[in-house]
Amino acid sequence: MIMNTRPLLSSLTCLAMVAGACNLQAAGIGADQQLNYPDYSRKSGDLVISRSAYAEKFEGFWLGECIANWTGLRTEGVKKTAPFFTDKDWGTNQGRNRQKIEFVLVEEEMYDFIRKDYEDNPDKDNWEKTRDALNRRHTGVTTDGYNYRSWFDAGINYGASLVSLFYGQGDFKRTIRIGALCGWDSDNPTATWGGLLGFLLGREGVEKAFPDKKLSGLYNISRTRINFPDRTPDQPGDDSFALMAERGIHVIDRVVIEEMGGGIDLEKDTWLIPGSGFMIKAAQSESANSNEEFVWKSEVPDDCPFEQSKDLGAIKFTGRHSDYRCGDTFYPSWASDGNLYSPWTDGTTDGISASSGRGEGVKAETGHAVMIGDDPVNLVIKNTSPLKIASAKPYQGRYPAGSLVYNGIWYYGTYCLGPDGSYNHRGYVWNWPNLGPIPGFQISRDLGKTWTPSPLSPEKPLFPEPEKHLGTVKMGAPHFVDFGKNMQYSPDGKAYMLGMGAEENDPKPRPCIHVGEAGKQYEVRPCDEDFDHANLSWISADQIYLARVTPSPETINDIKAWEFFAGHDKDSKPIWTGDFEKIKPLLEWNNNMGCVTATYVPALKKYLMCVTDGWPTVANMDSYILEADTLTGPWRMVTYMKDFGEQAYFLNFPSKFISSDGMTLWLCYSANFSEGANGIELKFNPPGGRYGLCLHEIKLLEPGSK
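Request: output the structure for the sequence above.
Response:
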């Protein structure tokens, strides 16, 4: 998932002209009161680094970033297409809202192209030549897999940042000036180089670039962001560069002590880093075999309706995990050619970036990937085709779901979300709090190379729901049950699909919340407004529903070909109906369900179901694993993983990576997409998690096993 917010480093609001900059004193940086500083004797070969000098660099980073960001904001979005600004436009009133364009004091192929164009240009003052060449290379044409679509594209702004980097030649003011004049999303490239150049120059070096100005050390983030603490209550703004630098120094203190085995000389204000400390332990965790195994503690809530499994009692993480740099929303399907095929979005995969909420949902993007190989930590992951662009209207997000490859045909569904990826309700920001309908399936007959669009739409979805816009659904965010390679273990040749849902007029809805006090992620409060508080969101629900179909291009988008689980008869046998109005929950646990997947494990003759209750959408999330002998139940609890991830979602067990005895599997998920939202800090647990594709090896344990 993705929230519609700018990166924090590119959004700090600088009080650039406020007098009284609060610099760190030369006396040095004090100790972190929450950190134990052990005694440490300096050894020969230790690297000695001044903490105060480093803090001055930090101040330069924040000051430079602030100046650059606000200079770039003057021209952000003004020039989205040619003709662009040139050096002649600097100092004119052509910025946003007729503002003056001036200093406001407060991918591989593209890199090669821009660098070569810069090096071949005899006039190093003519940066406009390379900027215009970049525009021609990617506007209206796809070059090296990238076609410019929107002014805030990461691709075009990456190119603009390189233009300002090369032609700026390390000069702080020149680099920011070019970045601001380049066009597109101009504040982000300028902020990037402003911060990095500021770090290299330090605060003193940035100040020297503006000798006739007295630069402030304060900024006011609350102008554009909420829920940040006021660290300077007696001064304008919320924080200072000096205080931020000090917090950065304390973070490094922890790294030096806890990860490098070094020490801190507080009297001399220096770090003492042993030679062996350069092999930081944290970096070793990126290895597939670096972490120790452990059993995740199961903490089943008292109101759980599922009996504890008598066959499976816990899961153990072996410490083996992947280290891919891919996008989000991976649900692999094992095809007859031996490869896995998966949807994805929100992030970058194989050099292509996608966003399922782009253009306020008008140009929502989803990707198609093939995962080649038999070793989960050494897969080759490539896109099979360009991004699919479709409208989510009247919703604003359109995400991948219901992906199945069967007999060489790939069926790829999507679902809608609203009202917004960052929805502010009474000061608390929610992520996609309303789950929407399924606009059907696109179909590929050549394993993802070409696609036939779905004949359906958000206004005319596959299933007749919701009754009203932003109302409840039952087959929300659906996912096909994983029956193994080419559905070989389907009991009847049909494809089964699980969805999550809720009912209107819920007698016990989710509550309204607000940002909590220190140590609390949120607190409940009364509310009489017409808002469901993410009772049925992209990651939270009350029930699980089940449907099935004999998959073919003719049936997949025809509701008449689908059957729906409608409960059990008096002999406990499942009832199936073609009438969607008669659908009944397969499972129900009010206020404790959400995103759902299931995989058949042939050696165990069992189904494993992964459920994530991610309410309130941007905090820690709980996941649990159920097991059953038949898909229609009864289902039993294996383990309840509180705060798994700490914010893990989209859990699934790819059948390709299940061991022959069924006891070793690889858990696929993503984690921690909303770090910092609502002031909530998140850590990766287990180690090796990331925002994007994660694969972790786990072992199923019998009850009583250690």
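The chain is about 15% helix and 25% strand.
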